[in-house]
Amino acid sequence: MSWLWPMAGSPSQKGVAVRTSAPPFESDDDSDKLERERAFDIADSVEKGLAREIVTEFMHPLRRSSKLWRFHVVRSEDKLQYRLFSDDGDFLMYARANLDARKVEFFLYNPTDKEERLYDPSRPAFTMTFSKDRSEWRIVQERCEHCQFAPKHLSCSCHGRQQVAFIRHTREPIGDGIFNCMEVHIPGLYSDGSRVIWCPLLGRGDLGGPFDDNYEAQTLVTRKPVWNDEVESLVLDFKGRHILSSAKNFQLALSQKPEHVICQYGKIGPMTFSLDFRYPLSVIQAFGISLTTLFWT
Fold this sequence. Notes:
The chain is mainly beta. It has a single domain (60-295), classed as Tubby Protein, Chain A (Alpha-Beta Barrel), CATH 3.20.90. The chain contains 3 helices and 14 strands. It has a 12-stranded antiparallel barrel with strand order 1-2-3-4-5-6-7-8-9-12-13-14.
């Protein structure tokens, strides 16, 4: 699949993982039947090269590069649905926001694809929740990599689930404008390149907590724009992109390298935003971070 070329590999080439736990309010017989039907659908999609069941592919950092990998996000007219595409236009991920429930759910399948039978609105791959004041956002993986095959009562599903990213928003004045800031915490990487699995059953606390310098997490911070008197606005330099003015535009850098842009998100059309990022961010981390600007005005 060409859309995975910055990543480690293709889900359809590595096999599939079928969920075995029964959805709530279903009998075991109904659940078994649904799982068997889904397994057949997945097998059929594998043969066609369309299966996208390996969630970890979207968790791996992009390959190292001196440049940002380019993607773009298309927003629906009601501003509650978002689709992530590669620069070539290949679909990667779908997200829908539920403001009343204070959450955004992420799916690996496109619900509007006529050939798509595997999209299930009750089975998000990732979920992002936000606080009542909309200042704190937390992304979790629905099926933890550490304990996904354990019985439910022995898994982390009752303890907060595997955390993928934590984002905190603040606001501060710059010149005559107000700057939307964010601080992002993501699980770190070991020296061999493997990821830290942020499972509470492995003794790891909340990603939103304070960390020591040598803690197994990385911190990203927003690059501050400068006030431009000529355009009477705060501006950022999005190199290589023609960006429209928007309160949702931002750039992120590692806290220890504030001039080294890791991720940038900018409006490029009425309903389209560029999303460019690189190592050590993964697809779900970058996409999720971009959607925390949902309420920025």
